[in-house]
């Protein structure tokens, strides 16, 4: 799957998701078992939990890269219930093609779709401007810092106007300043984009800053240990990190992890 690969090239619809009894095993060992979760239109779910609890597996099931062994999940698009959602996927590594320019990398999903060249250029340039890389369109990946590469990868995932954005620890390798800046930018892009999203992270502080709801997965339960609604609304910004209420929510989520023996 090319990051940003999609079903069609139409306008964006609103997406909700219903998962019922989803399970997945590898070599006879269950990773997920009887997972139930409902995701509302435009909701950002942060998935946290220790390695091996099924976070990436759940993303791969939603993306169609891995088939669930049991249970079912349904995508519901408004106002286009008959079609599948467009999906953008941002991996832990930027996975940029070194022989393409920055703009060429962002254009790639549109090229696969058969989008006309002038339209590809227009949309890629617009998205690069939104992630702060308008002046780097002709650069090669080797000329970029890691943070800039992740911005290119984010632009590539979003250029297709996805209804569902899947992010698998995309900022884990960045320093704290770089991660915070990209988190701020992701919130701004989300307000403009309106997509539904899953964000996998090992950082409780990052999960609370970004999410509408933090879902804690447990390898013991092979599913959901706890769900914590985050009460800060979607117009939050970097100032939230200075608020005592924010750190209380971080402590609450961390407490669930510790209570489940997952710290």
List the helices and strands and how they pair.
Blueprint (H helix, E strand, L loop, with lengths): L13 E13 L2 E11 L4 E5 L6 H9 L6 E9 L8 E4 L11 H12 L3 H14 L15 H13 L5 E5 L7 H18 L2 E5 L3 H7 L2 E6 L4 E7 L14 H16 L4
Helix pairs in contact: 2-3, 2-4, 3-4, 6-7
Tell me the helix content.
25-40%
Strand order of the largest sheet: 5-6-7-3-8-9
Determine the CATH topology of the domain at 14-95 and 162-259: Rossmann fold
- Radius of gyration in whole Å, from Cα? 18 Å
What percentage of the residues does DSSP assign to strands (E)?
A: 15-25%
CATH homology superfamily of the domain at 14-95 and 162-259: P-loop containing nucleotide triphosphate hydrolases
Order of SSEs, N→C? EEEHEEHHHEHEHEEH
How far do the termini sit from each other?
A: 33 Å
Let me know the number of strands.
Answer: 9
Q: Give the biggest beta sheet.
A: 6 strands, mixed
The helix-and-strand class reads: alpha/beta
Average pLDDT level: 88
How large is the count of helical segments?
7
CATH architecture annotation of the domain at 14-95 and 162-259: 3-Layer(aba) Sandwich
Shape by Cα distribution: globular
Unreliable runs: 1-10
CATH class of the domain at 14-95 and 162-259: Alpha Beta
Give structural notes.
- By secondary structure, this protein is of the alpha/beta class.
- It has a domain at 14-95 and 162-259: 3-Layer(aba) Sandwich (Rossmann fold), CATH 3.40.50.
- It has 7 helices and 9 strands; from the N terminus they run βββαββαααβαβαββα.
- It has a 6-stranded mixed sheet with strand order 5-6-7-3-8-9, sandwiched between helices. The protein has a 3-stranded antiparallel sheet with strand order 2-1-4, covered by helices on one side.
- The two termini are 33 Å apart.
